[in-house]
Design goal:
416 residues, eight-stranded mixed sheet, single chain, three-stranded mixed sheet, binds flavin-adenine dinucleotide, Aspartate Aminotransferase, domain 2, 18 helices, 20 strands, alpha/beta
């Protein structure tokens, strides 16, 4: 497993999900922010000359780590769409509870479903991330057991987070959990479930959100600089939420709040700090989840997503029968409200996801030309996407990656 981790880090393919730290021997791997501001596995010095996992675990890790590969084939049916993945139903909606809708990143649907699962006793806990109590700029994996903690964890955090670290607790427990994470976090869980009956049994629900990529913590630091908020004075930091999209807000020790629009923080700073793995990710759309949510942006007069402040709305894709049953029961109880949405309309509200999905193949080709390793992606029908976007855009994506190649930083497994 050490050799695999080294290969991943040397090729800058880690997404920082944290699954490796959960399945390795206890304390062998710790997830930490590295020099580039990303969460990465660090080896405990005590394990330098010792194996960190059994042969069996190492094999399961090799087949599950999203840096090594994604295989969507076991989850595909006749409902598979070559750009948007398995879609049983597409909807637009929001949380019935006003507080959750407002607190949530978009329509608060993820938090509403989490709260519903707890209230109905469908799960004992919700695995998710939230801002660390010690350092409001860092994210920690938690198990929420109350509405209050689900609301405290709501909202997107555009910085490294490793919810799959929590798989260690799941493996030792007999409780049931809902897992919430980015598409790569969820893929790690789903692929590892194929090797672990305990994980399959203990995590009956997996929910995700569309993801344009994880920015380095350096991005957050730059946002703070632009806000004129000294890092050590910050007592709370929200990227968005509390409205839709809501403001990026740093609260200082003296009670002062410094704010910036989502368009300025994400669009002008954070999205310039994405890690390499995200640039070649075919699954920004959460294909391994039971339900995936995204911003259900309204289009402006030119047809582009409008970030004008309004009441939160989510795009919701139901991907499995488990997801459908959960969503329909929550809807019948008034926990979520939704109406059907045409799959053909997703392109207009998620243009970035469309562009990245259709240009993954040329980017992978550019990586191969540079003799860089890439993850193995199976079943994503990437050729269809490339044909859809055409030669010109494919060529642009190919040359764009060649030009940016210098940024790919090679590192080995560092010692904690
Ligand atoms: C890195 C990142 C990229 C995103 N890219 C897109 C995009 O391309 N298109 C789009 O429409 N929306 C994107 N979003 C926003 C996301 O779509 C919305 O959060 C989603 O619509 C869910 O809204 P909600 O109101 O239902 O979620 P909420 O009810 O607010 O719940 C959000 C859940 O996500 C969890 N979470 C927040 N940040 C992270 C994180 N970094 N890692 C793991 N879990 C986290 C929280 O713990 C919470 O459980 C992104 C968010 C993030 C964090």
């Amino acid at each position: 497993m050490k050799a695999r981790l080294n290969r991943i880090l040397k090729n800058d393919l880690c997404s920082g999900c944290g699954m490796c730290s959960a399945v390795a021997e206890e304390d062998a791997i710790q997830m930490r922010i590295n020099r580039d501001g990303y969460r990465r596995p660090f080896l405990n010095a005590a394990f330098t000359d010792k194996p960190i996992a059994s042969e069996q675990t190492s094999r399961a890790f090799g087949a599950s780590c999203p840096a090594l590969g994604l295989d969507i084939r076991p989850y595909k049916t006749e409902h598979y769409h070559p750009i948007w993945g398995e879609v049983l139903e597409a909807l637009k909606g929001y949380a019935g509870d006003e507080e959750i809708r407002r607190a949530g990143s978009s329509g608060g649907v993820i938090s509403a479903l989490a709260q519903y699962c707890l209230a109905k006793g469908l799960v004992d806990g919700v695995i998710q991330i939230q801002a660390s109590e010690e350092d409001p700029l860092e994210n920690v994996a938690v198990i929420s057991r109350s509405r209050q903690n689900v609301i405290a964890s709501s909202g997107s955090r555009y910085a490294p987070a490793s919810p799959a670290e929590a798989l260690r607790w799941v493996g030792m427990s007999t409780e049931k959990y809902l897992f919430i994470g980015k598409p790569c976090d969820v893929a790690a869980v789903r692929q590892m479930q194929a090797h672990s009956p305990r994980l399959r049994e203990n995590i009956p629900y997996v929910v995700s959100f569309m993801c344009a990529g994880t920015p380095s913590l350096e991005g957050t630091h730059q946002v703070l600089e632009k806000l004129g908020a000294p890092r050590d004075e910050v007592t709370a930091f929200r990227y968005r939420g509390d409205g839709w999209p809501g403001l990026t807000k740093a609260t200082l020790r003296n009670g002062e709040a410094k704010t910036m629009t989502y368009n300025d923080s994400w669009g002008k700073v954070l999205n310039r700090h994405l890690q390499t793995r995200c640039k070649i990710c075919p699954d920004g759309i959460g294909e391994f989840a039971d339900i995936v949510c995204a911003d259900g942006w309204e289009g402006d007069d030119k047809g582009y997503p409008s970030f004008e402040e309004r009441e939160g709305n989510s795009l919701i894709l139901i991907r499995s029968e488990t997801g459908r049953a959960l969503f329909r029961n929550a809807e019948a109880d008034g926990v979520v409200k939704a109406e059907a949405f045409d799959v053909g309309g997703i392109f207009a509200i998620q243009p970035f996801q469309y562009y990245r999905r259709t240009t993954i193949l040329p980017r992978l080709m550019a990586m191969k030309l540079l003799l860089l390793k890439t993850p193995s992606y199976k079943g994503f029908e990437l050729g269809k996407g490339m044909r859809e976007i055409g030669l010109y855009q494919s060529f642009k994506a190919f040359t764009g990656l060649l030009v940016r190649r210098k940024k790919i930083k090679k590192r080995a497994l560092e010692t904690a």
